[in-house]
Design a protein that fits this description.
Shape: rod-shaped
Structural class: mainly alpha
Oligomer: single chain
Order of helices and strands: HHHHHH
Length: 203
């Protein structure tokens, strides 16, 4: 083997080593960003789960404190069951799936606030119970937590998508299956946390 071939071999080896180092660095960054998105989404779901639990407790409180037919809360119970049945993994964060998730959450929110307004008007003694007031306050606080979690999720998605889509990272992203993820798009007015107390004051 002459010196020319040896030199070419050294150059090729050096290029291969540099490409491997670069590729490993890009891959590790993509994994980290992907994990950040997964963690941020898990926090969104955790806060929604907290709301499910609080609404369930509030429903039980109402049922125990007021004498009325269970049908009054049927919509809330059904909407809550539907909302809790939609769970997305980090690999399922597409625009279509997030829209389905959000629609179920909105249905629960609308049903809950509407029924709570009805109950306050027809069973004013409920608002005088300490447990009822405490649960209302916790639900309002949870709505704020949900908004914060969704914002942080969108920030994580934006950072991740920038890594995945930009050249030359996108070459490795395509090879290893790192696809862009969808942000959480709020409906009009969703930036304001709904207030059970405000609903009570209507009418």
């Amino acid at each position: 083997m002459n010196k020319g071939c040896l030199g070419i071999g050294v150059v090729i080896t050096a290029i291969a080593v540099l490409a491997l180092i670069w590729g490993s660095g890009v891959y590790n960054k993509l994994v980290s960003e992907d994990e950040n998105v997964a963690r941020a989404w898990a926090n969104v779901e955790a806060d929604y789960q907290r709301r499910y639990d609080l609404i369930g407790n509030l429903v039980a409180t109402v049922e125990n404190a007021a004498e009325f037919e269970r049908g009054t809360l049927t919509d809330v119970i059904e909407a809550r069951a539907k909302a809790s049945s939609i769970n997305l993994t980090a690999n399922e964060l597409t625009s279509e799936n997030i829209q389905k998730f959000q629609q179920a959450q909105n249905e629960l929110n609308q049903s809950f606030l509407g029924r709570m307004n009805f109950l306050q008007e027809n069973y004013p003694q409920l608002t005088a119970t300490e447990q009822f007031r405490d649960l209302n306050a916790q639900i309002e606080g949870t709505e704020n937590r949900i908004n914060v979690s969704r914002t942080r999720y969108n920030e994580a998605v934006n950072q991740y998508n920038n890594k995945v889509r930009k050249v030359p990272n996108n070459l490795l992203a395509n090879i290893f299956g790192f696809s862009p993820k969808a942000p959480f798009s709020s409906v009009s007015g969703a930036e304001v946390a709904p207030s059970v107390r405000d609903e009570f004051n209507k009418g």
